[in-house]
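Sequence design from tokenized structure. All designs in this work follow the same two-part layout: the structure record, then the generated sequence. An example of the structure record is given first.
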């Protein structure tokens, strides 16, 4: 049987989830205002994102696009706009449960086409841990998408330990996605908040997971870093050198960074073959997973062709296209 091609990084805003959030939490619920047949204005808690592509909420359009781009299956997570870490935790929990239940329903109805990741109220780690457990055990989801920071708190914050413990116990896949990126005051022009800010914040998240000892202490978690890991693979040797010469780098990390770095996974959203070739050569095909960032305009939709063109054995092409994702999604 041919192994499916799996898009590990995709986002969804389910219409039924919108309806339920508008009923239960109207003050922050998403509102879609059509622009034309293909795009809408997405407003969440008074903040607007536009243009929001139709594939984000229209399942038939999504399925058409998946066929067009060669994706047999998508691992869907919520849109970054709806994680709501800046709201009261009880409100965010309601939004999380509604969205998680709708993703679970999609996975149950179309198991050959979709797997799902939860969203959880990370500003309250205990609530986040409980909702992750519910979404995975009862809802059949494979893990969660979490922010690269929690309203400015880095991922090595000691308060997050209860969540990491639960995620490790559940052997969760955690997609680390940039939110409210660092240095925004200097990135307001030219769309730098995404062009530079997103990979920068992913890099900060990876560094905090490594040097904060999170990867050391919680071996059951698989962390998947968005957008090729930002600058992490390119600067990994600098991190290793820093640990050997600076006591600050050893404050919470007991062994050299390489052991923790070797546990990170990366998506393929790098927009060119050359950096993707470097990533695969550096970390190995088993830790590189096809991703698209569907449906956003900063996504990469030629990923299948780019991966097949890499200077790698055919088996490694198959691993990046879906084998590595299956290994993570089907962990016992």
């Amino acid at each position: 049987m041919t192994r499916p091609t799996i898009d590990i990084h995709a986002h969804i805003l389910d219409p039924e989830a919108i309806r339920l959030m508008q009923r239960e939490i109207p003050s922050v619920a998403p509102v879609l205002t059509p622009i034309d047949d293909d795009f809408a204005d997405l407003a969440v808690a008074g903040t607007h994102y536009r243009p929001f592509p139709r594939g984000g909420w229209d399942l038939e359009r999504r399925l058409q696009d998946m066929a067009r781009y060669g994706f047999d299956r998508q691992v869907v997570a919520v849109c970054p706009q709806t994680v709501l870490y800046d709201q009261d935790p009880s409100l965010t929990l309601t939004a999380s449960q509604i969205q998680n239940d709708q993703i679970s329903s999609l996975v149950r109805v179309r198991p050959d086409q979709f797997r799902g990741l939860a969203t959880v109220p990370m500003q309250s780690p205990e609530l986040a841990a409980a909702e992750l457990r519910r979404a995975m055990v009862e809802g059949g989801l494979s893990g969660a998408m979490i922010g690269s920071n929690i309203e400015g708190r880095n991922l090595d914050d000691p308060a997050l330990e209860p969540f990491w413990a639960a995620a490790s116990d559940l052997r969760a896949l955690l997609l680390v996605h940039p939110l409210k990126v660092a240095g925004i005051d200097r990135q307001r022009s030219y769309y730098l908040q995404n062009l530079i800010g997103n990979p920068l914040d992913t890099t900060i998240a990876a560094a905090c997971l490594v040097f904060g000892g999170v990867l050391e202490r919680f071996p059951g978690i698989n962390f998947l870093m968005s957008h090729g890991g930002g600058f992490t693979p390119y600067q990994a040797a600098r991190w290793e050198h820093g640990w050997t010469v600076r006591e600050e780098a050893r404050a919470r990390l007991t062994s050299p960074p390489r052991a923790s770095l070797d546990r990170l996974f990366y998506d393929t959203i790098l927009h060119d073959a050359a950096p993707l070739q470097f990533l695969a050569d550096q970390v190995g095909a088993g830790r590189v997973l096809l991703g698209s960032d569907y449906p956003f305009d900063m996504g990469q939709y030629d990923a299948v062709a780019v991966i097949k063109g890499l200077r790698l054995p055919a088996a490694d092409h198959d691993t990046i296209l879906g084998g590595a994702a299956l290994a993570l999604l089907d962990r016992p």
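Residues 89-109 form the longest helix (21 residues). We note this feature because it recurs in several other targets discussed in the main text.
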